[in-house]
Amino acid sequence: MSFFLNVVFKTILFLSFFFLTHNSIAQFGVGNMLKNKAEKLVKDKLKEKTEEKRDSYDTLSFNYAIAFLDKTESFENQQKGEGLIKTADFLLSDGEPQTELESARDIYDFGRLNYKMRNQFMAETNLKLAKLKYEQLSARNEPNYYKTLGLLGLLYSDMGRYSKAGEYTEKALDGWEKLQGKESIGYLAELNNFAVLQINLGNFIEAERIIMQLEEKLSAEKDNEMLPYAIYLNNEAILNQYMGRADKALGLMDDCTEIAKESLTEKNSTYLQFLTNKAILEQENGNLERAEMLFQNVLDLQESRMKLNAKNDPDYAHMKSNIAALYAEKGEYDKAKEALLLSLEIYKEEFGEEHLTTAGTQSDLGNLYRFLGQNEKAEPLLQSALYTRERKLSKTHPKVVKSQEDLALWFWSNGQMESAASYFTKVMKTSQEFIKDYFPALSEAEKTKYWEQLKPRFFRFYNFALENYKEYPQLLDDFMRYRLSTKGILLSASTALRNTIFSQNDEELTALYERWLDQKQQLANAYALSDEEINEQSLNVDSLESATNQTEKELSVRSEAFSSAYEDKNTDYETILKELKNGEVMVEIVQYPIFNKQLTTKNAYAYVILKKGVGKPEIVINKDGDLLENRYYAYYNNVINQKMKDEYSYAQFWKKLENKVLGASRIYISPDGIYNQVNMNTMQQPNGKYLIENHDIRYIGHPNDILFKKTAQPSGNQTAFLMGDPNFNSKSIAQLPGTQKEIESISEYLSPSMKMQKYLNNDATESNLKQVKSPKYLHLASHGYFLEDKQANDNLFGVQLQYIRQNPLLRSGLLLTGAGADQASGSSQSFNQSDNGFFSAYEAINLNLNNTEMVVLSACETGKGDVKAGEGVYGLQRAFIVAGAESLVMSLWKVDDTATQKLMSGFYRENVKGKAIPDAFRSAQLAMLKEYQHPYYWGAFIMFSR
C-alpha cells in the first residue's frame, strides 16, 4: 500500500509541476537555468541554503481569507523570495533522495501553487494527498499539516462548499492551538479564516465575536504583522457593511488601504481588491464621484497588471460587476448591462454556471432587466441565481432570501400575484427570524443600522400587500402582523432593556448597567469639549464610544430584554380589536415609500382603522404623502403661528378618515411620519368645530399599548419634581419669569397630596435634574431647542458639530441654569464637568423615571425631532419614554407664556379633582379653547402615552 501511494504521490507531483510550467513558463525560467547550468558544487551549496530558507518560510507564511462584497479570496502572507526558493529547491533536488516529510511538503507546495493560480481541481488533489501523506507518516505535529488543512478550508470556501470549509478550518484551528497556542500566528490566521467563513454563511453575530478576538490579538502586533492587520481591518469593514454600518465600514477600509500600501505595490491583486472594497463603500455612503474614480483607477491598474489577459480574468470581472452597480445608480443602464454581461461571461468560463460568484452576477443582471421592463430576460437569470444559492447555502442565508425576494418582485411585475405572494411569504418569515436572531446581541446604534438595511424589504412588502389584499385577503393579515411586530422596534428594544434591569434583582447586571450609564455620561461630557480641550485632557473619544457600545451589547445579550419584548409585540390585530370598547376606534398610521420598480423618495400613508364590531381592519390609502409632508404641513404651520383661520388642513389630514370614525367617542391614534408633527385636535371641521370637541383623541406609540395596563403603582413614590425659571447667565437668552409662577401654581395644587421637590433660578441645574429618582410627576419649564441637521454649526448648544450630526438626540434638549455662562465668560470646561446648562435628549435617556406616571415638558417645540418612518420622533419625546415615563406632555410649536401657565394650572387642577391624566389634560384644553379660540394658544401641547 505504501509503495502504491508513493507512486501516486510522485505521479501527481509530476503532473502538477507540468501543469504549472505549461501555464506559467516565465515563472520557472530562472529555475530551469539553474538546473541546466549549475555546477555540482554550486548546486550542493544552493541546496543547503534553500533547505535552510524553506524551513524558515514554513513557519512564517500563512494564508489569510479576505472578505469581499459577494466574493472571498485569500492572501498568502508569503515571505520575500519564498516562491523562487521553493521552485529552486524542487528543481535542484532532481535525482536527490528525499525524506517522506520532504515529499509531503512538496505535494503541499504544489497544491498551494495550484490554489494561487485558481486550478481548483489540481489544488484539491494535491492538498488532499498531502494531508493523507502527513497522516500516513503520523506527522500531525508538523506545521505544514495544519497549513494543508487550513488551505483546504479556504479552497472549499472558494468553491462554495461551506460545510467542508468549516470542517477543515475548525480542524486547523484546533491543531494550531495544540501545537503553538492561541497567540501563534498560525492560530490567528485560521481564526481570521473562520471569521470570514461565518460572514459567508451569514452568521454575522458569530463573525463579529471572532473579529473582536482578532482585534485584541492583532492590534498589539500590527507593527510587526502589518498585512494580517490590514486584512483584519478589511474583514471587519465588510462585516460592518453587511450589518448596515456603511459609515464605520468606510473608516475601517480607509485604515486598511493606508496600511496595505506600505507593504504591497499598487498593482498587487490583494491591494486592488482592497481598493475595490473601498470604492463600493464610497458608493454605499453616497460618494458617487469618489467611487467612480476609484473603480476606474482599479480597472486601469488591473488591465496594466494582467496585460493581454486582463479582460478574461475573474478579478477584472469582479471589478466590472461592482462598477455596474454604480452605473445603474447613476442611471447609465447600458453601461451597467455591458459590464454585467462581460462579468457573467468570464465567471461562467472560469467557475461554471453553478457557482456563487456566477449567481451573484446573474442576480444583478436579472434585477437590471426587471427594472428596465425586460422581464423575459430577467426570469431565467433570477431563477438560476436562486437555484445555485439554495443548493450552496442554507435556506435562511441572506443571499437566498434576497434571491427569493427578487423573484417575488419579478412575479409581481409580471402580474403573477399568487406566485409573488408565495415568495413574499417565505421572505418575510425569514426576515422576522433575522430580527429575532441578530437584534439581541447588538447595541441600539447597531440595531438602528441593521434595521435601516432590513426595513426597505418590509416597505416593498407593504406596497405589494396594500395593492393586492382585496384579492388575496391573507396579505392583509400578513401586513398587520409584520407592521405590529416592527413598529417602534428600536424604541421597544431600548425600553425593554431598562425595564428588565429594574425588574430583576441581579446585582451583577445592575452594576453593568450603572457602568454603562456612567460611560454614556462621560461621552456626553466629551461631546461638549472642543478638539483643543480633548487634546489637553488626553481623551480618546473613539475609544470611549467603542467601550460604551461594547458594554451596551453585553447588557443586551445578558438581559435577554429584546427577545421577550419582541415576543410581546407579536400580537395579532384581533387581540387589539377585542380590547376596544364600544365607541372606541384605533387608527394606526403607516408611512411608507412608494414602490415603482424600486422604492422611490415619495411617500404614501395607509390609515388602518380598527373598530369594535368590525372583524377586519379597514384601510384608506393616501398617495399624497409628499404634499402632506411639505406644502400642506407648511400651510398648517403658517396658519398656526400667524393665528389665521385654517381652511384646508382638515381636508388634507383628516377628511379621508372622516366616514370611518363617525360616531366614535374616543379615537386612539398611533402616528407615523408627518402625523407626529400635527395635532389632530386642532383640525377645524367645515362646521367650525375642532376635532377635540367631538372626539377624545389619545396619542399612543403602538396599537398594542392599549393592551397593557399602567404599571405605576399609586402606593409608590408620591413625589412631584418641579423645575423652572433657570438662570441662564446670558443676555442673549431671555429669562422666563412666567415659568416660576407656573411652578408655584402647580405646587399649590399638588402639595396637599404629594411631596414637593422644587428647583428654581440657580437651583434649576442639570446636576439636580440628573438626581431625579422615579417621581410620580416630573414637570420642567424652560426654553426648549431643536435643530434640523442643516442648522447645526460648530459647538452649538454645547456639543461639537461632528457629534450633533451623528446623533439626533444631541440636537434637541432644554436650557437650564448656566446655559449662557461659558459663552459670556469665554471659559472652557473639563471632561468631568456635566453641568453646562444644555440638557440634551441624549442625557435625558439616562434619567431614572421608572414608574413615573407623567413628564410635562413645558417649553417650546419639545415634541420636535428627527421623524423616522415607523419609529417616531428622535428627540426629547423618545428620550423621556425610554427613560421610563408612562405619559409625556410636549409642545409642537413656540408657546405663549401666559396661555401655557393657564393651561398647565388648569390641567393639574383637574387632575387633583380626581380626573385621570388624559381626561384632565383634555378638560384643560377645552377650557382654553373657550377662552382663546385659536389653537395657537391651546393646541401646541399634545399628550403621548404608552
Automatic annotation (TrEMBL):
Record-annotated CHAT domain positions: 653-944
Any one Pfam family match given in the protein's UniProt record, by short name: TPR_12
Molecular function GO labels: kinesin binding
Subcellular location: Cytoplasm, Cytoskeleton
Biological processes per GO annotation: microtubule-based movement
Keyword Cytoplasm: yes
Record key words, sorted: Coiled coil, Cytoplasm, Cytoskeleton, Microtubule, Motor protein, Repeat, TPR repeat
Primary subcellular site in the record, as a coarse category: cytoplasm
Superkingdom classification of source: Bacteria
InterPro entries membership: CHAT_dom (IPR024983), Kinesin_light (IPR002151), TPR-like_helical_dom_sf (IPR011990), TPR_rpt (IPR019734)
One of the record's GO cellular component terms: microtubule
Family: Belongs to the kinesin light chain family.
Protein name from the UniProt record: Tetratricopeptide repeat-containing protein
Originating species: Marivirga sericea
